[in-house]
Amino acid sequence: MFMHAPKPTLIVHGGAWAIPPEMAADHQAGVAQALKTGHAILEWGGTSTDAVEAAVTILEDDPTFDAGLGSFLTSKGAVQLDALLMDGATLRAGGVACVERLRNPIQAARLVLDKSPHVYFVGAGAEAFAAAHGVHLIENVELVLERERRRLKEAQSRLSLGFADITFSGPLARDDKSPETAVKHPQNPGYTSHDTVGAVALDQYGNLAAGTSTGGTLNKAPGRVGDSSLIGCGCYADNQSAAVSLTGWGEPIMKLVLGKWATDRVAQGVTPELAAQQAIAYLYKRLGGHGGIILLGPDGQFGIAHNTPGMAWGIANKDGLRTGLSI
Asked: What phi, psi does 174 have (nearest 5°)?
């Protein structure tokens, strides 16, 4: 039980990968805008779920990131989006996956959390549920950027030339095409990427929330779902432990249920700072995975970690607003 109302805290990330210098300013500006929007809601007395939804919406609307507008394209040239929102006070959650006609899947996830007895909707069913609750359905082409058409063509050309796609497993030294971590290869030094977004929040009422949203991996098979929208994998929140959002290689994160793994460490008394570091170390040790994590405890302690060259992040709390591109 808190003796005093906790100080509102919001942490966001814009993906863990090798952020090129020419994209650094856009990444920091994007996470800063998400922080300002979400933290203002907390300061006005809004809930942690309100703040997370708002912050992730800002990131989805920013084409700098792989979520919403400007996301990676599937092998068929379409955008398919996944998102999850979880309320740590009640353990209620809402998730959507493989949606193509929703501009902001995190808002659809909020509707599932608030309005449905179910937890998860996919594809056309998710779109129909959102439409039934007043969400305007868009044409998929509205989410597609010419930049991403070029990236898809490039990736498919590389595959046709025999470059192996080992995105989801194996040591970093062999990773010549990793959309979500964008490790540059000497034979393709200009290859760039962007990645999953997420947020975690603590409100003045002592409640935690977490949200994660993604466009998935470049050239993915239609229907592929990664870790981002799966409870306990890319996202989790529980007032009795912590709130977490992950970014990186989805398949290894799913196999380890890494979000729940990290929050369980906090429940056992490990500080969020150490638990975040341990989670990323575990991801690499067990499966050679790469990614990043933001982790927030119910007392406002937090941890941020990644084992990629960079990760766009930001935090707004009693000490002010700070952003960075690495830890």
From this structure: -100, 5
Per-residue model confidence (pLDDT) at position 246: 98
- The pLDDT value given to residue 3: 55
Which residue in the list 49, 57, 64, 196 is annotated as catalytic?
196
Q: What is the pLDDT of residues 208-264, one digit of tens each?
A: 999 999 999 999 999 999 999 999 999 999 999 999 999 998 999 999 999 999 999
Both structure tokens of 12: 């966001």
Active site includes 196?
yes
